[in-house]
Design brief:
By secondary structure, this protein is mainly beta. 8% of the residues lie in helices and 33% in strands. It has eight helices and 48 strands. The strands form 15 sheets. A six-stranded mixed sheet has the order 8-15-14-13-12-9, covered by helices on one side. A hairpin with a 4-residue loop joins strand 1 (5-6) and strand 2. The two termini are 70 Å apart.
């Protein structure tokens, strides 16, 4: 130390020469205790600090002017500013600018190097600090009188590599077993490394880490901890000795246990020497806190550990000197019987842990039991080998079920499961049928599926309106090869001929090329809603979430009730929906005591449009905000790209009207439009007006077949398209949406604080929107804005 003002030249300057600082950092002139030597010792060479441009080996460094003093990684720069009392950060900026003026002409800057420290005169304003550093980062700053002190150097460089401070008691720097505390400002030390959390974070000893979860582990931890010195001397044995034990606990922090051995790189430890340290922290360099230091024969107990009613006990059973020196540690939850250090074992029989799934071994050398997992492999690839801690190994025959309905699953003992593809396996088809009258007049259609299914569901919709009386589609007798479709009026009367579209789908979730994703299933329930009743449906959860709320179609697939019935789905989200039977205003069922259980088939489609082979699909859902009852405003589904009216199924997915409703064609049905009413029954109430309801729909080319030709590893089948237009698919088969249309009702102007948040049905990269006001309910001038 000494004055930092050179009275001879009158210039403010640092008190040491560049070569002196280089020696204190890198030991270039014989200094044996430096930041480079300590990091090298604690990490056993895994982190080394090397002076930049020390041998001018790089092309850039070779260009440095010979007059520039760059000694072993230390660059001396001059600035013209008066820095007395100047904030250290401002002075660092001046120095950095001056250094870059030297380095920039040869293609370098201070950021060209892994790390750089700035040494400033003491007369700069430091706010009481000896130094500071960015965490994590590449820059640090030191006052001149501390820049050569190894203890300060290591602490600040510890910040640069991502570590905060190490505290004890009430002081955030008071854990002096760790360089991130402040064990000393000494020039030559102290020779100390880092505590448990910081050592775990740095990862130098990762082969000697042990992760222990007391709450979820069947066994306690029993092992030998060694210090960093014996690890550095290669005296530790992987699997026998540990440097850090991480104990998982609830909350944001875990516990870390380490042997604070005074030896080698940690021979400067003077804080709870040779004790077992328990430190709380994380694995991201956050602030750490020393919780306990345990001498030989001592213990540390934590009541109600991790929210449990049990106490965690950490015992330092004994300490032995040797090669290596070690501390034998035992960690266990106290179930009320106490925790004692295990006696040294003498043979394998004395190591019984009462677990049939472990191999118990006594290490004669260590006197400690080890418990390794028992391998239950019986050599038969067609059995599932499992182990129960009480009964031991068991071997059950594998079903080999790959969850793919389009494969035949089998097994051979020598090679295991095989899955042979079924040719022309279908997961969905669509169709139409013309029904001339209702089931009550003896009219029904026996549908023979084009393909054979394992477990199909069917949804249906009446597209036309040749008769105005209330009527709904019904499905029953669903088998792997066909079903029965019919119409029924709530009052069991006759009806004019109508066209019915239907979709058949294999149960399961299917993610297909061309952008079509759907999930099909069925649900049996006796839950039903009638006129004026609050809807309480059964919850249905999808096997995986959709990207956005799907279009859910639904139809009864049985005919158990003696009277008319339909179905209703509501509360559709990306994760599921609710479903139940709906008997609307039918009088006999309103008085009924018991409603029979019916099975409802449902299909949930990801919304959008695309191509399956040469077949276009258009899927969506919407609520136009207008009353959609019979005789009111029909809900119009706009279609495009079809030469003929498509197979389209529509369903109500809401309950805004308390009289109950279902989807029924309004009389508009063509290749460009499907009109829909929220149909009400007329059995006890001839009035058929109805509130606005959200509708879901799925339209396909007439008689679409979806045939699987391969099965993806994710259990997502693919479809082989004969041609995929760029309109609907990218080269990878992922749908690329280029446009959509919609309609909203805006009740007033922005000046009256009315605006509508429109959520697109599809995602776009860089969309534009063009609107138009279709109606003229007010004659004043008005325009649409986006």
């Amino acid at each position: 130390g000494g004055p930092d003002y050179n009275t001879t030249s009158g210039n403010l300057c640092n008190i040491r020469t560049p070569s002196f600082y280089a020696d204190s950092l890198f030991g270039t002139n014989g200094d044996l205790k430096t930041v480079a030597s300590q990091f090298n010792a604690c990490s056993k060479g895994k982190l080394q600090y090397v002076p930049a441009c020390s041998d001018a080996s790089s092309a850039e460094c070779a260009q440095l002017d010979s007059n520039v003093l760059f000694a072993n990684g230390v660059l001396e720069v001059k600035i013209d500013n008066n820095v007395i009392g100047m904030a250290s950060g401002s002075a660092v900026n001046l120095v950095t600018t001056a250094a870059n003026s030297i380095l920039n002409p040869i293609g370098l800057s201070v950021t060209s190097f892994k790390q750089h420290m700035v040494i400033l005169p003491d007369s700069v304003s430091w706010g009481g600090a000896a130094a500071w550093a960015y965490r994590p980062g590449t820059q640090s700053a030191f006052r001149s009188s501390y820049a050569d002190h190894m203890g300060v150097q290591v602490h600040e460089f510890g910040h640069n590599v991502g570590l905060l401070h190490s505290g004890y008691g009430t002081g955030s720097y008071n854990d002096h077993s760790c360089m991130q505390g402040n064990p000393s400002y000494g020039n030559n030390g102290p020779e100390v490394c880092w505590n448990g959390p910081n050592s775990y974070t740095l990862g130098w000893y990762k082969d000697y880490h042990k992760d222990f979860d007391p709450v979820n582990s069947n066994d306690p931890f029993h092992g030998r901890l060694v210090g960093v010195g014996d690890w550095a001397d290669d005296e530790a044995v992987v699997g026998t000795h540990y440097v850090v034990v991480k104990i998982s606990q609830s909350g944001s922090n875990d516990l870390f246990v380490m042997y604070n051995r005074v030896e080698g790189p940690t021979k400067g430890v003077n804080f709870f020497k040779n004790e077992v340290m328990v430190v709380e922290g994380g694995t991201d360099g956050r602030q750490t806190w020393l919780q306990s230091h345990i001498p030989a024969g001592g213990e540390y107990a934590i009541e109600n550990f991790s929210g449990q009613s049990r106490t965690l006990v950490i015992k330092n059973c004994r300490q032995e000197a040797g090669a290596p020196d070690y501390s034998e540690v035992y960690i266990a939850l106290d179930d009320g019987t106490g925790v004692e250090c295990p006696a040294e074992c003498t043979d394998d029989d004395s190591c019984d842990d009462n677990d049939m799934c472990t191999v118990n071994t006594c290490s004669a050398e260590l006197g400690i039991c080890t418990f390794t997992d028992l391998v239950c492999d019986d050599g038969d690839a067609c059995t599932d080998d499992v182990c129960d801690p009480i009964t031991g190994c068991s071997h059950t025959k594998s079903t080999c079920d790959d969850g793919d309905v389009c494969t035949v699953d089998s097994c051979v003992a020598e090679v295991g499961c095989s899955h042979e593809s079924i040719p022309n396996c279908a997961v969905m088809e669509t169709g139409q049928v013309e029904l001339t009258d209702t089931i009550d007049l003896g009219v029904k259609a026996q549908i023979e599926f084009t393909h054979t299914y394992n477990d199909p569901v069917v949804v249906a919709f009446i597209n036309t309106r040749n008769g105005d009386e209330s009527v709904s589609p019904r499905v029953k007798d669903v088998t792997s090869t066909g079903c029965t479709i019919y119409m029924q009026e709530p009052d069991h009367q006759n009806h004019s001929p109508e066209t019915v579209s239907y979709i058949v789908a294999e149960k399961g979730r299917w993610e297909l090329s061309g952008g079509l994703t759907f999930e099909a299933g069925s649900h049996s329930t006796d839950r039903a809603r009638g006129k004026g009743m609050n809807f309480e449906g059964d919850p249905i959860s999808f096997s995986a979430s959709f990207q956005k709320n799907p279009a859910v179609l639904h139809t009864l697939n049985t005919n158990a009730n003696v009277d008319w019935m339909t179905s209703l789905a509501t509360s559709v989200t990306t994760g599921g929906f609710q479903i139940a039977q709906e008997y609307a205003e039918t009088s006999t069922l309103n008085d009924a005591v018991t409603i029979a259980t019916e099975t409802i088939g449902w299909i949930a489609f990801e919304t959008g449009f695309g191509m399956i082979g040469e077949n276009l699909f258009i899927i969506g859902h919407y609520d136009d905000g207008v009353s959609n009852g019979v005789g009111q405003t029909q809900f119009i589904i706009n279609l495009f790209g079809y030469e003929n009216p498509p197979d389209i199924v529509v369903a109500v997915i809401g309950e805004n009207g308390r009289d109950g409703s279902w989807a029924r064609g309004s009389g508009t049905y063509s290749s460009t439009n499907q009109g829909v009413y929220a149909e009400e029954d007329q059995r006890s109430d001839v009035e058929r007006g109805h509130a606005s309801e959200p509708f879901a729909w799925a339209a396909f080319e007439r008689n679409t077949d979806i045939i699987l030709v391969s099965q993806q590893p994710s259990n997502s089948p693919s479809v082989a398209p004969s041609s995929v237009p760029s309109l609907s698919a990218s080269p990878t088969g992922t749908p690329v949406f280029v446009g959509e249309t919609g309609r909203i009702l805006v009740s007033n102007t922005i000046d009256e604080n009315v605006q509508v948040e429109v959520v697109f049905r599809n995602a776009y990269t860089n969309p534009v929107v063009v609107p138009f006001i279709n109606t003229r309910n007010g004659v004043e001038s008005v325009s649409p804005r986006v």
